[in-house]
Design a protein that fits this description.
Two copies of one chain form a homodimer. Chain A folds into five domains: 1-143, 3-Layer(aba) Sandwich (Rossmann fold); 148-289, Rossmann fold; 292-448, Rossmann fold, CATH 3.40.50.261; 454-495 and 576-696, D-amino Acid Aminotransferase, Chain A, domain 1; 498-575, 2-Layer Sandwich (Dna Ligase, domain 1). Helices cover 38% and strands 21% of the residues of chain A. In chain A, helix 12 packs parallel to helix 13. The first copy, chain A, starts with 9 loop residues before the first strand and ends with a strand. The model of chain A has no long low-confidence stretch (mean pLDDT 92). Chains A and B meet through helix 4, helix 7, helix 10 and helix 15 of A and helix 4, helix 7, helix 10 and helix 15 of B. Chains A, B: It comes from Methanococcoides burtonii (strain DSM 6242 / NBRC 107633 / OCM 468 / ACE-M). Chains A, B: Residues 486-522 form the ATP-grasp domain.
Chain lengths: 696, 696
């Protein structure tokens, strides 16, 4: 709990000003407008500002303050914070800019501020932010142009301007907030702290965020996973593309991780990702006012056939079903609706439908057990009584536990109706498609919040062996490993193909005899990168004769093609047939750490990029979904009468890789390519592995 | 030209009424509001309505009327039209509903109306429509709630309610129209007629349409192709999904073609397809007011870093580039912008930027030759002078030939600025992403309109041979063909693999000797559908011995597995190796006719549905694009050092198939599967063909 941050008994404004247009004045005005606690302006050049006694420093103010809002120039901020600490201030909001976002000097200054805050046991919002708002306590410690309306949404944003725009947008639509936090550079408090704060905040039902990055990826996932079971978390994450993430780093100095990692992390922690600010707002409205539906069967009611069709299309695209009504529902509709109406979903009450017909249709359809939610569409046609229809909708909405989302489509002629819907907190979307997408998000969340988190499995592995092997390699300055990589997999219970490096013909023959035929033979030489091109690979060797002939011709071929290559021997490998090649990879994301990748081998990965991702450590449920979510998954379940592959063994291997890369952060990159997957029940075998180690 | 439809000297309203709330009154009111010609109410029960002399029938009205608007009940419409014809009316607008959309009886009535109209040489809009509007002539022959503002957009819609919503939406944003047409059931006049009408209409610069289907697909493509070179055509086509298209048929009785066919047809005729009504409106605004940019290099100017990042992301997703400014531009910006500004694209003028800074930045950036268009973003921050900024934007916009699209993001605090932008016809989008998508559409159209239509090639083929072969098959009641299919391909210059059906071992040996080895042998039997399962396929036969052994063992295998199968012989085929399998298919779309399909064979088609479409007959330019647009195209150009496939031969085959299926509508379905494509320069060979014929 961030004690006294949102409901302090007193607030000091360090850098308060009486000059209109200055931030120090705007903050003071905002506090004066709705905050009932003590307000203490701090400014060495004034005795009084706006009727309030003013002090040169916070140390001079009798009784100090629980919260300090800092608006002095960046270079003066460390000193101001130091004084806050000495004066016993609990929390500070640093609005001043000129820190990490401004370059190296600013970064130093920011680190200094964070240190001071920590030394004194204070917590800090910002720097480089707009401030914070709490509508319950009446606190507006920001230079926002207006106070937020009261509501149940808590929003945080890494962009002050997006705070401003959102507040203004919401105000015009009657959308209210509980807490509003401009995160700024997040030198101390970040989204993670506020997620925890909002989890148990009784005034918060919906959490929304504009983020350019997260401060601590794994922590974010852990917290979001927990909080999202109680309240929906809707996030827009910008800087998704190369150009976007370049712009991010010059904005708040945030280092953006890969968009794939964010997608995986959000999905694993049940965070709802909005694709645009508009969608963020659309979803905020739906979640803040409507119940979560029990299922995905939706009814569309419209007075305009065309709008109904557009909504029906949108439902299919969004993965929603159109309800099939009970026969009794249809009969009831038939009894009152005009003959030309469409009684089946979408229900068209026709262009001249009056409010009572709307009300009857809504009520009848809401009563049908096959209906989980309603999309209500209205075009302001010649006979349409917009105002009365909106009132009927509001009345029906008050008596149902199913969500209703509206789209009254028009301009001036729908304004009055829209105002009524706004007043009753029934979201109205300018066009049907947006209502449908919002409904789908409500449905998705209904599934998400029921989902029990599955702990990553902990296999009984030989961690010590791997640990000493890696330590040894790193201390010898080796960044990649040879056959020892196979031992690492074995230590973690991942089946690997029998493989031996041998130096002589006799050694080769013995090795093959031991492992059994058929075998594959490859030349071993640090000088040869494309083995196939120099005759350095032989497959399908069935017996000792084959092996001897292959060994001798290979040696002569290699000598002929690359006379100067130093050959250290050959590698023999048991040949595996009848399997399908898949790839399991891992690299480390700057924000979330180990990012696992899965896909089918060959062109599917190379050309189609048909791969899926998850952040490790990760449970078996997510890994199952990861495997089944690639587009080429049917190839694994078996097409054209083929027998299915051993998918369980892929998932098991992914679980073990998840554990391995989580146990050893020094493994920077990792790839099993290919993992040969045999038919169901026969497991899988790692055929080759690539592993890159980090420094000491 | 639809003479006197939009500017008649006189308009009769058949079914005029003085009763408020009736359509016959609404139409009369609308005419009285802005139309300066003669208005003639027709109603047998009144002598005068709203001060106008009223007549029992149009035949009683002295001088008749050039246009008649019909609002009487459906069953009375044929008689009313008959009288219009006798009275010399040129055009009719039938608003009355109860026709094709209402079932079989309605369909009959509609056909009857179309016949009457034709007999009398009249043209008809509707039935089941809202009416038509022409702002130039002041004609509002509709029951829309209000007259459209004057503007340069002409819109047609198959849904009357979407007309109403659009008019109301546009009115609130100062968006004006030239012509507004509610198409209704399109019993006579359709989108094709109005496209031609708008092509040369000097008041129309942009054509927009909501369609549930097109009346004549090939004609639509021909007309749209021509018109889109002069004016952008933006279409939203609903009923894209199964549920949506079911809803379409109960709305206007339109039979929806496949969405793939619409996509192909729109793309081939340079129609811009909007994904939602919202996008239709967004694009209408951009096209109606902004010039078409010369290229895709866009500058973003913002007073809010966060908005800039969102726009940068959106640019990348939309395929736009961020301009790299000239060094002189950067220097100039540096000279006046505050030090903390970002001078590189996106340009952040900072939250406290005043109008003069905005103006300076816009002007400087517009001057840079690397900038083709500007996206201007504004958040209403504490110091932001929205009104003055909007005025500066308007001024700069008036002096440039580059498009500027704005996104002032907020609610009440941006209203004043938005009103100024609306007044100056500078589109303002509520969120940055929509401005970016609209800019991309402007850029796309710039490329489209320059594109010269390439005539489908006409190869010298043996059409008569195919014609008689097909005629023969059909008259014998055959729906599929055997080896004759290969002859059809040969007649159209498509290489086919050498294939022979033979009855005896000796015949087989002779055939193989003639075609050369290696060969493939397949059992021929109408009773065996899965040849491989009964040992009925042998590949890679290298010489006469192989063939003899294969023949004998195949016969005994088949006898053992399927003792009752009647075997008529074997098929021998030259074996082709070293190629890649592709598929060329065709089926007939209800709206557009022959729809060609192309894709790589096997799992790529079966699992990934990685295919592309085009409507035949079609030129080589589109077919080239069709081949290169599949996701797996790199497999054809060669990956992993493979040599490229003979892509030119695929395109050539597609051209010839296009001609074949256009020449013979009796070919209902057609598939070459596989077409074996050899390395570049070596052509391709059809290995198998499936062909279904239609009835007599």
């Amino acid at each position: 709990m961030l004690e006294k941050l949102f409901d302090p008994a007193s607030v000091a404004v360090i850098g308060a000003s009486r000059t209109e247009g200055k931030v120090g004045r705007a903050v003071l005005d905002n506090l004066l407008e709705s905050y009932s606690g003590r307000i203490i302006p701090i400014n060495p050049k004034a005795d009084e500002i706006l009727g309030l006694p003013c002090y040169p420093t916070i140390l001079d103010a009798p009784g100090g303050a629980e919260l300090a809002v800092v608006v002095v120039p960046a270079v003066l901020v460390p000193d101001a914070l130091e004084k806050c600490g000495l004066a016993g201030v609990k929390n500070v909001v640093v609005i001043s800019a000129g820190f990490k976002e401004a370059g190296i000097e600013g970064s130093k200054l920011e680190r200094r501020c964070a240190e001071i805050v920590k030394e004194h046991g204070m917590r800090m919002v910002g720097p480089n932010c707009l401030g914070i708002i709490d509508t319950a306590s009446g606190l507006n410690a920001s230079f926002a142009a207006s106070m937020a309306k009261k509501g149940n949404i808590s929003m945080m944003s890494q962009s002050g301007a997006i705070c401003t725009s959102t507040l203004d947008w919401a105000d015009a639509r009657g959308v209210g907030f509980s807490k509003f936090i401009s995160l700024g550079n997040k030198a101390d408090l970040s989204e993670n702290d506020f997620l925890l704060e909002m989890e148990d905040d009784e005034n918060t039902a919906v959490i929304a965020a504009y983020l350019e990055g997260v401060k601590d990826g794994p922590k974010f996932m852990e917290i979001a996973r927990k909080v999202s079971r109680k309240k929906p978390i809707i996030v827009i994450k910008s800087g998704r593309t190369a150009v976007g993430s370049r712009a991010v780093s010059s904005h708040t100095g945030t280092l953006a991780g890969s968009d794939e990692a964010y997608n995986a992390a959000f999905s694993q922690s049940n965070v709802i990702r909005a694709d645009s600010v508009e969608q963020l707002m659309d979803l905020m409205r739906a979640f803040s006012s409507q119940p979560i539906p029990d299922g995905r069967n939706i009814a569309i009611i419209t007075n305009a056939g065309g709008l109904g069709i557009l909504a029906a299309d949108a439902c299919q695209f969004a993965g929603l079903s159109l309800s099939s009504f009970d026969e009794s529902t249809i009969e009831k509709l038939r009894s009152k609706l005009p003959p030309a109406s469409s009684l089946y979903n979408p229900v068209d009450v026709l262009g001249d439908a009056r409010p009572d017909i709307y009300g009857f249709a809504i009520e009848t359809i809401l009563d049908d057990p096959n209906v989980d939610g309603v999309i209500l569409l209205t075009s302001p046609q010649a006979m349409t009584e917009i105002k009365n229809i909106a009132e009927v909708v509001a009345e029906k909405c008050a008596h149902t536990k199913k969500p209703i989302l509206c789209s009254f489509v028009g301009g001036t002629r729908i304004e009055e109706g829209e105002a009524i819907l706004n007043r009753h907190h029934i979201p109205n979307y300018p066009f049907p498609e947006r209502a449908v997408v919002s409904m789908a998000a409500l449905c998705d969340y209904g599934v998400m919040r029921e989902h029990e988190y599955v702990l990553p499995e902990k296999f009984d592995v030989d961690k010590e062996f791997v640990s000493s092997l890696l330590k040894d390699a790193i201390s010898n300055g080796r960044r990649t490993l040879g056959l020892e990589s196979f031992d690492i997999l074995r230590a973690y219970g991942i089946p690997v193909v029998e493989t031996l490096n041998v130096k002589t013909l006799q050694g080769t023959l013995d090795a093959c005899e031991n492992m059994g035929y058929p075998v594959v033979m490859k030349v071993l030489s640090a000088d040869i990168s494309h083995k196939t091109d120099v005759g350095g690979v032989r497959i399908g060797l069935e017996n000792a004769d084959d092996v001897e002939r292959a060994y001798l011709t290979m040696m002569s071929d290699v000598r002929r093609y690359m006379p100067h290559a130093v050959v250290s021997g050959v590698q023999v490998q048991k040949m595996i047939t009848g399997g399908k090649e898949v790839i399991i990879g891992m690299n480390r994301d700057v924000q979330f750490g180990p990012l696992l990748m899965f896909g089918l081998g060959g062109t599917y990965v190379e050309v189609l990029k048909d791969v899926s991702f998850s952040v490790a450590p990760v449970g078996v449920d997510v890994l199952k979904k990861m495997v089944s979510s690639i587009r080429t998954y049917p190839i694994l379940t078996g097409i054209r009468g083929e027998s299915p592959s051993d998918i369980a063994s892929i998932v098991d291997t992914l679980c073990r890789v998840s554990q391995l890369v989580s146990d050893f952060p020094e493994i920077l990159e990792f790839e099993i390519n290919p993992l040969m997957v045999l038919p169901e029940g026969q497991g899988c075998v790692a055929m080759d592995i690539r592993l890159t180690l980090g420094g000491e």
